[in-house]
Amino acid sequence: MGIIAPSILSADFTKLRDELNNIEQAGADWIHIDVMDGQFVPNITYGPIIVDACKRASNLVLDVHLMIETPDALIPEFAKAGADYISVHQEACPHLHRSLQLIKSLGVKAGVALNPATPLSTIEYVIDQLDFVLLMSVNPGFGGQKFIPSCIEKIKALSALLAKHHSDAIIQVDGGVNMDTIKIVSNAGATSFVAGSAIFNTEDYKQTILALRQNM
Ligand code: DX5
Ligand code: ZN
């Protein structure tokens, strides 16, 4: 069964606790927390304080996506705040092997995120360290963007690469995942689906998540 991970970037922050309760009641599996520093991406969001708030307000798994320039410095803070999964961008990690070692040393599941243009070859020598791979299907920085179709071939290629290495790492797809794209993304090999606007911009989260699952 696929993992549905609503991105709170599209949530109503004036009532975050309610939004978290609603997506939990609606059958979400993870909470996707998009951390942006205004440097790695042209937007600024939130830091460990929101991870801590989500930890205290929800029982869901916390999936923290670090779109920041120097993740190594802040990984311990996000782990302490309660992250269960942390993904770092390959493009922001000159010492990716060490960054992943750091995440795992803190008892947190380790993932690497790749922007649409970044080749899979950049993670070939760290596959044995990975609990998950996050493939961006939009250019990072904002919710509500259009899915980039060339990512489908990349998902298929990642699935083959992981199989070649006998890796059971989760393939997570992030950006523009909705009722129109989730089937092709799932058929290509993804098993974790980040959906921000596709969920939070609807009236009935339970109905939306059910429909997404039925379309996987
Ligand atoms: C973009 C973020 C995504 C985004 C997804 O930089 O990493 O998680 O919030 O939003 P939607 O699902 O609306 O494309
Ligand atoms: Zn994300």
Tell me what you see in this structure:
With about 220 residues, the chain is an alpha/beta fold. It has helices at about 15-25, 50-55, 70-80, 95-105, 150-165, 180-185, 195-200, 205-215; strands spanning about 5, 30-35, 60-65, 85-90, 110-115, 130-135, 170-175, 190-195. The chain has an eight-stranded parallel β-sheet. Helix 5 links the parallel strand 6 (about 130-135) and strand 7 (about 170-175). Helix 2 packs parallel to helix 3. The protein is globular, with a radius of gyration of 16 Å. It binds D-xylitol-5-phosphate and zinc ion (ZN).
List the helices and strands and how they pair.
Blueprint: E1 3-6, H1 16-25, E2 30-36, H2 48-57, E3 61-67, H3 71-81, E4 85-89, H4 96-105, E5 109-114, E6 132-136, H5 151-164, E7 170-174, H6 182-187, E8 192-195, H7 197-200, H8 205-214
Parallel strand pairs: 1-8, 2-3, 3-4, 4-5, 5-6, 6-7, 7-8
Helix pairs in contact: 2-3
The site of D-xylitol-5-phosphate (DX5) has 22 residues, from strand 2, strand 3, strand 8 and helix 7.
Strand neighbour order, sheet with most strands: 1-8-7-6-5-4-3-2
Q: What is the number of strand segments? A: 8
Element pattern in H and E: EHEHEHEHEEHEHEHH
Tell me, briefly, the overall form: globular
Helix content: 25-40%
- Chain-averaged pLDDT: 98
